[in-house]
Amino acid sequence: MKTGTLSTRHLIAIKDLSESDLDLILQTADQFLEVLYRPVRKVPSLRDLTIANLFFENSTRTRLSFELAEKRLSADVVNFSSNGSSVSKGETLSDTVRNILAMKIDMLVVRHAHAGTCRYLADRVDARIINAGDGAHEHPTQALLDAFTIRQKMGRLGGVKVLMVGDILHSRVAMSNLFCLRKLGAEVRVTGPATLLPPHLEEMGFPVMHRLDEALEWCDVANVLRIQHERQAIRYLPSLREYALYFGINKARLQKLSHPLVIMHPGPINRGVELQSDVADGPHSVILQQVENGVAVRMAVLYLLADQIRNPIS
Fold it and tell me: Is residue 4 part of a domain?
């Protein structure tokens, strides 16, 4: 497989990647998606490397997607969960990671509840770090797979109108998507309750639309975000019923539009809140396609960072 070279040693944030990096990852993912449809869905690209998945937060899709991507590339895989580990006995993050790396680990995939954890580790250890979600900071591989899915569905990214809907304030998916899609030429706007929108979005170049129906009429793609209950120290909404009334997407809303939309969601879905089931499971939805594409995109990221291990950049 012929590819270029990433300009970074780690994948911590979309902001660290150039447009060329993003294009390279998506092009490489195209090749790995083809691998996933072969009778033998495995290649030997990483058979000399060992990867540890360090998840300090609950996860289903991301964790399984990374593990499957690693195994499809023939890497040796070690899975770590903070539950039942020495972390529960008071061991520090640095000590935990250093002990794991002493077992000759080449790459770490890290999910943590605190923003900045992956950057902290990248500055202190030799292994390559992939951010699988850190607090409300970023989730770069989710943004990459979302961009890949939009390009696959629409045939392009340049000029596509993408709407981020919902809990922007607490969502790491939102921030990664905003930066990623803008770099790739999409036009991005946001909508959601005022209490769930971070300040300065307009100043950052991301217009805010306050009425969902008008926003849906504007966009080609609606990427609907989960209400992040676990990151909300106070109540930001009067009720989930009121949220569903004003910002939930249902079939009746879609039928009023003058054009069909692509509906996305990073999961897990709060059915009946962000999306009604007839939308989540309907013809507009590419949610399961996102999950499938996540394996190919993560294979691409792992493959390209493995190349950095073999051929370090200066």
Answer: no
